[in-house]
Amino acid sequence: MNVPHFVFGIFGNASALFLFLAPVITFKRIITNRSTEEFSGFPYVMTLLNCLLSAWYGLPFVSPDNILVSTVNGTGAAIEIVYVLIFITLAPKKEKAKIFCLFTFVLLVFSVVIFVSLCALHGNSRKLFCGFAAAIFSAIMYGSPLSIMRLVIKTKSVEFMPFFLSLFVFLCGTSWFIFGLIGHDPFVAVPNGIGSILGTMQLILYFIYRDKKCVPRKQAKTKEESMETGHAKPHKEKQSNANGAQA
Fold first, then answer.
1. Most exposed of 10, 127, 176, 244 (fewest Cβ within 10 Å)?
2. CA-to-CA distance for 171 and 162, rounded, in angstroms?
3. Using CA atoms, how far apart are residues 175 and 106, in angstroms rounded to an integer?
4. What percent of the chain has pLDDT over 70?
C-alpha cells in the first residue's frame, strides 16, 4: 500500500466514522421518548448489511491492500447493530416485526456470502463475488438521501438535511473514491464515486435553500433531529383543530 493510498484510506475512515455516528442524536431522542415515533429502521438495517459485506471484502484473503476498508466497516457494523437492536426494542409491534425480519435477512445474506466465498470460490473469483455484493449495497446506502433531497426541493427548506451530514457524505465518498482509484479497485471506486456525486448535490441544495424557511417549525420538529441520510418516514400532514377558535 503506497502513501497516498494509505492517507486517503485514513481520511475515509475518519469521515465514514462521522457518518456512522450521525444518528446518535436521533437515537438519543428515541431512547428518551421510549418510542421510534415516525423514524424508519430500514436504512439502519441496509447500512448494516453494507458494512458487513464491505468489511468482509476488505480482508486480506479476499482483496489485498484493503484492510482500511475492513477497519471502518467493521466499526460501522458494530455501531449499526446497536441502532438496529434499539429500534427492534422500542419500535411499535408491527414495525418491530418488520425490522426483525429484515435483520434476519441481513444475517442470512451475509452468512451465504461468507459460505460461498470460503467454500466455493478462490482467488480472483472470490474477490469478484464479494466485491459485487459490497458495491451494490454500498451504492444503495449512498442512495438513501434521495428522499431527503426530494423533500428539500419540495419544502424549499434544509431543516431536514443538516449541513455537516451532507459535508461528510461528500468527504467520505470522495476519499474512498480516490482510494479506489489509486488502488485500481472499481468495487471501492464506483459506489463511492456515486456517493461523492450525491454528496455534492446535497451541498448544492443546501446552499440554494439554506436561507429559506418555508416550512413551519412545528412540521419540521419531528424530523429535524434525524441526522442520518433519509431516515424519517414521510407522513401525511394532519389537519389543524379549529373547533375552539372564536371570531
1. 244
2. 15
3. 27
4. 82
pLDDT, residue 1, reads 58
Is the predicted pLDDT of residue 112 greater than 70, yes or no?
yes
Instruction: Determine what percent of the chain is predicted with pLDDT higher than 90.
Output: 27
Distance (Å, whole) CA 223 – CA 161: 9
Cell of 158: 434544509
Distance CA 60, CA 170 (A): 27
Burial class (CB in 10 A: 0-12, 13-18, 19+), 245: exposed
Q: Residue 59's pLDDT band (boundaries 50, 70, 90)?
A: very high
Q: State the DSSP string of 149-215.
A: HHHHHHHT--TTS-HHHHHHHHHHHHHHHHHHHHTT-HHHHHHHHHHHHHHHHHHHHHHHHTT---S
CA angle (197, 129, 5) in 5-degree steps? 50
pLDDT value, residue 217: 44
Mean pLDDT of 27-52: 84
Angle at 86 between CA 27 and CA 222, to 5 degrees: 35
Cβ within 8 Å of residue 247, ≥6 positions away: none
pTM here is 0.76
Look up residue 39 and give its three cell numbers: 423514524
**Residue corresponding to grid cell 373547533:** 243
Question: b vs e for 199-228, b when ≥16 Cβ sit within 10 Å of the residue's Cβ?
Answer: bebbbebbeebeeeeebeeeeeeebbbbbb
What's the helix, strand, coil split of the chain in %, to 5?
70, 0, 30
List the grid coordinates of 97. Answer: 416485526
